[in-house]
Amino acid sequence: MSEGQGATEGAVRPLYHRVLLKLSGDALAPLDTGYGISTKQTSMLAREIADVVDLGVQTAVVVGGGNIFRGRQAPEIDRQQADYIGMLPTVMNALALQDALEKAHLPTRVQTAIQMAQIAEPYIPLRATRHLEKGRVVIFAAGLGVPFFSTDTAAAQRALEIGAQALLKGTKVDGIYTADPNLDSTAKRFDTLEYLDVLRERYKVMDATAVSLCMENGLPIVVFDVRESGNVRRAVSGEPIGTLVHGAA
Questions:
Q1: Phi, psi of 101 (to 5 degrees)
Q2: I want to staple 234 with a disulfide (CB 3.0 to 4.6 A). Which of 43, 200, 208, 239 is the partner?
Q3: pTM above 0.90?
């Protein structure tokens, strides 16, 4: 249990009781450079996660590695090799987040799709579920352990395997827009979208494989600004923040 539970528990009734939070590597990076690991940002994320664990929400995390290396941005390297290289920074980020969570008094386990026995457990779905049931945060690293799949797809896959009730996509913007709001001042944000709309219009919130997996299994996706304090708690509580991606009514 994290500190301050008495003040938080009971104040909000969560809509989801088991979630998977997908974080880009950028979420752990310094705000000014977007590169590397910021202990300040990582600690902030740990506090946000602790807040929802205090609500009794079983929480798993998939973290990307783009703050250190992106395989798709290294065309001179063979794509398969680049993807394997890109899996390694996700482990670095997972260990940094684990350290911050443990300092926030949250028991945490890192599981990797590539075996690294000295620093993390191998990915075993049943073991991950048991950890969650015991109140531990589980961080999944190294993607799916195979090339040609993004960490978004890994997040959707892991969410389905552990029986998560929602996939929370923490980003740098407050939802899905008709265009990039940083480039187009007329861009409008959607409160809700259907999976098919995301796929048809090619909104760049998650890759098509990840969205298709969620659509086929009815897993809702909540896209929100993870940098806003309290937003992870709001997302698990079902408050109308960001954009909810779901099936047809």
A1: -70, -40
A2: 239
A3: yes
